[in-house]
User: Fold this.
Amino acid sequence: MRLTIADLFEGSSFYDAYQLYNRGAAYILEEGYKRAQENGVGIIDPLPLGDYVRSLPLVSYAAQLVPRFYVFSGTKSNLQNVASYGEVVSDPRAREPHSRVQQATGTETIVNQVGKKAADEKIKIAKNLAGIQGANFNVVFAYAKDLAKNISTHWQDDESFQNNMTYVGAKIIGKCFLGIDHLPREYVKLLRQANDLISGEKADPDQLAQMSEKIIQMSDALLDKNAQEVIAANRYANTQYPLNGDETEEEIKTKLINSHAGAGFIVESNLSFLLMVAIAYISESPEIYEQMMQEINRMPTETLDDTKQLTYMKCIYRETLRIASGTAVVPRVTSVYSEMEVENSEQEKHNCSIYPNSYLFFPVRMIHHNKALWPNPQAFDPTRFSRQIKSNTSGFIDKDFFAFSAGKRGCPAGTGFVEYAFIGFLTEFYKANKLQLDRPIETIPATAIHPRWKEEYYATIETLDRSIIKYG
Assistant:
């Protein structure tokens, strides 16, 4: 066996520095998560004698120039503590990993906010998505069904599978967040480019500034053309600018446009990806397709109440959330010293010293693809969730399953909006259509920070004769 210099220093700060240089984020997540299995947190520190040096008064400031990386194991307590960092511990840099969202869109969003400001924004989003007594859930469900029912009018064969599904996701976001029913297809590639830039490992300030200019131009054009429709719909976009009650229609329109609320279209990414992942795996598995169709053909799916009976579709939804893990990591940055409570798999807790200029990662995707927790994790197997669905015990923050983060910073769209859009679209789509991809999809690594396919795929849709369906 031939040893390298790196092998001789394995486990040391020198080894960490070497691997960080060569592998970057993939090493942090893979090795950090591996180390976290013992006591709940894995530390990657390229500084020799890191704990000791960082605690010395005379050299601690210089030591901060070398970042430290903390990767936490998969417990709900750890996720809540990482996600809420910057709330309990006041730290202005906490949400710095999300600064690209603001830089690329020219708009401050909830991911850039902390404290009361973030809490208030979350309430606005949740109220908009649900509406009075959940009325808006009916809107997203019905609109997703309508898109699927008329998919032939929206689908372009010369466009990639990703572009077509991004258009579907963006249409749903436009309708439910802004009240816009029309989206020019020219913006699809821009939305994809923006999300790749925001989530990629590298992006320079010039690229972000150029993207911000394009996104603001898109927002201004959409809001200017559809102002009357947006204002009348009174959706989330209308919470993004203050009114004193005596503005003219033109003044309200100006405030709407200046809010850049149209930049909100970029949140389509995770919804679009969920839909395309589910459809791709269903197209590759005759067994899953047949079981799903037996359920769809057995019962009506016209209302939200009908969806309660779609147990296999709910399994497909949860398995898609797991295997896609669109939000791969919950990241935070530190600029102050603090102590964080950490929990291991045995629910034993201890305090961990968090030093300034450190990066905190809760690796959602690594957990969802851990073969010790999820046998054969790269396989798409909806039956993983059958027992929980049948017993009505499957939540979205569960043991080893963290689809929408947790705690105060949990995603407000996870309360029903995404699920109803997903089920509404898929049930209606498969009533009359079958999709075939041009080739098998690639496997996305568990360490991916921005889990998206690198290749472009193309798909053909076959319209089926299902004019007569007998339920029951």
